[in-house]
Amino acid sequence: MNNKAFFYGQFYLLMTLFWIALFENVHLMTLITGLIFSVLVIFFTEKYLLKDDFYQIIDFNAFKLLIYFFILLYEIYANAFVTIHQIITLQINPDIVEIHTDLKSNTQKCILANSITLTPGTVTIDLEGHTLKVLWLNAKSKNTVIAGNMIKGRFERFLNR
Amino acid sequence: MREIIALIFMSGGLFFIGFGILGLYRFKNFYTRILIGSNVDTAGFILLLAGVIIRHGFSFFSLKVCFIIFLVLIVNPLITHAITRSAYNSGFKIKKE
């Protein structure tokens, strides 16, 4: 129950922050109307648009997501410099590799696949069960374990915690 | 001082965008071009908007720019994935350069 209250609390706070950013002031009235409307919006979305509650569909933690954002930034820029080196030297070997992931929930798999697409040099093509099909600019290995460790190592270690 | 740091960030973004566009002309195949594309619209774009935030200081305007960055981080991989997957399903072959 406590976990559920925390989950919805961070949802309401994020939506209120968005409301304040659109109104560009921090009066008490804006805060109160923002809270009321965020509660209403989430209530009606769950009632009319979704089959389950948000709590059953996604697992979402704002603080973990913030730390994950910095890991993502590090990976993007490390891979961007590698890609620039490949653009200059033209030494590439594009190929499709299949990698295996141990993550269980759908949210974690979705975040992992989108992070792989976001880093320069790799694009996720398909996700079936626990297998990801990845297009790789410089395929050094076609082995599932070695290629998986090079592509998703840091992301999966953080998401698995 | 803040202006100089902001200009350094923005020119870093332009550096990534410039090399991304150079890559689009150096590679000839569809798949390699789409792989280079994310160099432009994530690496370059994030640095460019970070420069805008630093230049403007702490205000509601920078908060809105933060929201734009997060929106792009969510939407951008979906677009790349949709284009690549439709090309793969309709039978494009991977050619070596």
Output the radius of gyration of chain A: 20 Å
Q: Helicity range of the residues of chain B?
A: over 70%
How many structural domains can be distinguished in the coordinates of chain B? 1
Strand coverage percent of chain B: under 5%
- Identify the most extensive interface between protein chains: A-B, 34 and 34 residues
- The number of distinct helices of chain B, counting runs of at least 4 residues, comes to 3
Tally of individual domains of chain A: 2
From the N-terminal CA to the C-terminal CA of chain B, the straight-line distance is 46 Å
Shape of chain B from CA axes?
A: elongated
Which H/E pattern describes the elements of chain B? HHH
> Which residues of chain A sit in consecutive blocks of at least 5 with pLDDT less than 50?
none
Element order of chain A: H for helix, E for strand:
HHHHEHEEH
Instruction: Output the number of helix runs of chain A.
Output: 6
Q: Would you report the number of β strands of chain B?
A: 0
* Estimated structural class of chain B: mainly alpha
Major pleated sheet of chain A: 3 strands, antiparallel
Cα-to-Cα separation, first versus last residue of chain A: 22 Å
Mean residue pLDDT of chain B: 88
